[in-house]
Specification:
By secondary structure, the chain is of the alpha/beta class. It has a domain at 90-154. It is 37% helix and 27% strand. It has helices spanning 43-51, 73-79, 96-104, 111-124, 139-152, 169-182, 195-201, 219-224, 226-233, and strands at 3-14, 17-28, 32-36, 58-63, 66-67, 81-84, 157-161, 187-191, 204-209, 212-217. The strands form two sheets. A six-stranded mixed sheet has the order 6-7-8-3-9-10, sandwiched between helices. Strands 2-1-4-5 form a four-stranded antiparallel sheet, with helices on one face. Strand 9 and strand 10 form a beta hairpin. The two termini are 34 Å apart. Residues 14, 17, 19, 37, 39-45 line the site of adenosine-5'-triphosphate.
């Protein structure tokens, strides 16, 4: 399988603090990769460098074999990297439809936009009226709206930052089904604290600890790894 995303020596320092240090990450095209680690491990900083929101202190990022280390975020979106932030991309005063249409217009025009919007809202299972204001949605549903916005960009790599936060058990079950469905067409990088979701959805898991990769492997291997248990899972 080909590598869609590769980092080498990727590092970020914030005034003396090494938030991410020397990360070599290879994500294969078509896989669902989970990125886990304790609070403050550097997960959000790492993906910020993948999508261009954070400038690395050192190291490189390649997408499809092309060095994108210095490419601005909006051009990375055009290449097919979509990142759902922790809600910061939702416009509270716009409707669900308008929010998703903003994202869909990157690739479509005219009637194609309306179709893409309806498809994306349907795919994430948001059944509120499309004219409802996004700000009136529950926190969990705003997360789903963000995923719909990401999908409308027809991404090749979809980066989801804690997507199940604020979702009910039934919504989490639906989310897992959505990931399985999406994985047929999209490579997914999933930052997630909910271990059952990680263990069920991921092909491979990367564990970050103090800014460095502590372990990498399939979910069973990670679950059995003593260093991971000690650092994160709390079951060592
Ligand atoms: N803009 C910033 N300026 C200074 N320090 C920062 C900044 N952003 C993050 N940090 C620090 O970098 C470290 C890594 O933070 P980061 O948010 O990447 O971790 P995380 O693994 O995503 O944590 P969480 O699971 O809590 O979201 C933390 O110590 C954090 O306080």
């Amino acid at each position: 399988m080909s590598t869609i995303l590769a980092t080498r020596g990727l590092s970020k320092q914030f005034a003396g603090l090494r938030a991410v240090e020397g990360v070599d990450l290879d994500i294969a095209s078509g896989e669902v990769r989970a990125l886990i680690g304790p609070n403050g491990a550097g997960k959000t900083t790492l993906v910020g460098m993948l999508c261009g929101r954070i400038e690395p202190s050192a190291g490189t990022v390649a997408f499809d074999g092309r060095d994108i280390s210095r490419m601005p975020a909006h051009r990375r979106i055009n290449l097919g990297i979509a990142y759902t932030f922790q809600i910061t991309s939702v416009f509270a005063n716009l409707s669900l439809r308008e929010n998703v249409a903003l994202a869909a217009r990157r690739h479509r025009r005219g009637a194609g936009v309306a179709t893409a919007v309806a498809e994306a809202l349907d795919r994430v299972g948001l059944d509120e009226p499309p004219d409802q204001k996004a700000g009136d949605l529950s926190y969990g549903h705003q997360r789903l709206l963000e995923i719909a916005m990401g999908l409308a960009q027809r991404p090749r790599l979809l980066i989801l930052d804690e997507p199940t936060q604020g979702l009910s058990d039934a919504e989490i079950a639906a989310f897992k089904a959505l990931i399985r469905d999406l994985s047929a067409t999209t490579t997914i990088l999933l930052i997630e604290h909910n271990m059952p979701v990680v263990m069920e959805c991921a092909d491979r898991v990367t564990v970050l600890n103090f800014g460095q990769i502590l372990a990498e492997g399939d979910p069973d291997t990670i679950r059995a790894d003593r260093a991971v248990q000690a650092a994160y899972l709390g079951t060592g």
